[in-house]
Amino acid sequence: MEQLGFTCTLQLEGFARVRLGAADIMLSLPNAHVPWKGPSFTGSIYLDVDNVDELWETLKTRARIVYPIETMEYGVREFGLLDDSGYTLSFAQHPPAT
């Protein structure tokens, strides 16, 4: 997470809380009472950021890229990467409101 620019604000056994700007994410180990079979989420985690181009320049050679930065037909500039658990993280910046 530090490679993505997040700062760890709390770390306990099996739990961590990280922050990047206004994004505050809590992470935990799988529940011990439910057998864990690996990642099963099939969507992507979509994060709005204020500096997507700057973030792209920082991460493009350090991360496993799913899709490179581009401006989508709906006007949002974004890129996607895989985290260490195999989840897709999409970072996006919306155009300024007119």
UniProtKB/TrEMBL annotation:
SUPFAM superfamilies, per the entry: Glyoxalase/Bleomycin resistance protein/Dihydroxybiphenyl dioxygenase (SSF54593)
Stored InterPro entries: Glyas_Bleomycin-R_OHBP_Dase, Glyas_Fos-R_dOase_dom
Residue ranges of every copy of the Glyoxalase/fosfomycin resistance/dioxygenase domain listed in the record: 4-91
Highest rank taxon of the organism: Bacteria
Protein name as catalogued: Glyoxalase/fosfomycin resistance/dioxygenase domain-containing protein
Taxonomic lineage of the native organism: Bacteria, Pseudomonadati, Pseudomonadota, Alphaproteobacteria, Hyphomicrobiales
